[in-house]
Design goal:
The protein has 159 residues and is of the alpha+beta class. It has four helices and five strands. The protein has one domain: Histidine kinase-like ATPase, C-terminal domain (Heat Shock Protein 90). It is globular and about 70 Å long.
């Protein structure tokens, strides 16, 4: 039998298209989305300091069409901001006994819950950062998203 020879040609770009987010949120409702975001707070908190209490606050304002999920689970660093938007991005150990290990749940929840999502994070005393996931960003083919340094409200001076 003859052996086929292969010759390398140009590589194929495997970057996912952002429209895949629209297809994977069809089964997400308000309850599922909020549960996923609360689970994302529990995951990093669980292995860090088990004896510490975790606070998660959910604010729903139907009049303003506003949802906020705040926690004191520890946040992420500036270098880890990519984990908030990259499909499959996660700090979770794949062998850990956690609900969310695939790195898509929080992204699915964010996109399913609103057309404009602000994700703010602060890790220890390393500064606060924000990403804005908007409908406009989702409709562009680029994956790059602006990241912002944010001064916490408690440190802003009254003008």
């Amino acid at each position: 039998m003859a052996v086929a020879r292969k010759t390398e040609i140009a590589p194929v770009d495997g970057t996912p298209v952002k429209r895949m987010f629209w297809s994977i949120i069809s089964d997400y409702d308000l309850r599922t989305g909020l549960c996923e975001l609360v689970d994302n707070a529990i995951d990093p908190w669980t292995p860090s300091i088990p004896q510490a209490k975790l606070a998660v606050q959910i604010t729903l304002d139907a009049d303003r069409q506003f949802i906020a999920v705040q926690d004191d689970a520890g946040g992420i660093t500036q270098a880890e901001l990519k984990l908030l938007i990259a499909p499959g991005g996660s700090k979770n150990d794949p062998n850990a006994e956690l609900i969310g290990i695939f790195g898509v749940g929080g992204k699915r929840a964010s996109i399913a819950l609103g057309e404009h999502v602000e994700i703010k994070t602060r890790h220890k005393k390393q500064g606060s950062f924000q990403l804005d996931i908007t409908k406009d960003w989702l409709e562009t083919p680029e994956w790059e998203i602006p990241a912002y340094g944010v001064l916490p409200a408690s440190l802003r001076k009254a003008v």
